[in-house]
Amino acid sequence: MFLTDFYVQTYRDKVDDELSVARDVDGVLKLLGLPKGSHILDWCGGYGRHAIPIAKRGYRVTLLDLSPIHTRLAGREAREAGVKIRIVTKDFRKTPPRIKADGAINMFTAGIGYLSERDDLLALKSLRRALKPGATFVLDTMSPHYIARNYNPSGYTVSNDGSVRKVSFPRVYDFWTGRLISTETLYVGGRKEMVVTSSLRLYQPHELKELLEKAGFEVLSFLGSLAGEPMAIESKRLVVLSLRR
To answer: Which residues form the Methyltransferase domain (predicted)?
Structure first.
């Protein structure tokens, strides 16, 4: 899934609205609380949807992502935007310790939850080594409570330009493992082009707290949005604010 252009083809025009991205960036920078010129790691940062506007605001940015497709696109769009970001194409379980960032962000349910709990712990430990002591880490993921309350086993989207591209979502929640298993199919011109299956562990807040603490972070708060709203049962997002010990 993450080594193809599936995400770019199917979701980009749904999530790249300038106003919503600007709101996300406003919120995450406020949560980080870092002055301009600070070094921010966009961990599993994809094609630079947040990294590029953060760099535009005067921060030094490193973007790490597993997918060469995403990182090449991020590099091209950063150049077109007239900003410089450092790009690392790497498995997040092997985040280079030399990065030494002042803070890190992990946005839009990227990375954490798709592999095993052991892999997630390895990844978070490697992230810790890549941060300076006292660095702030903002993790933004799906709220398991919202998914449970609004569960929909299937659906589809059509791209904003009105093209025939569609994505179907047969989804099953596995109560034994806490995983949301999705088979997503991309159709172009009525023809099946790509099928991707994903399995996402929907961590409960207390489970993320335990995982982060094992990795060497101190959890400060759970929030319901990047705007800093308190976590509530109806919150769509689960945002975890922590410090690197």
So the answer is: 40-134
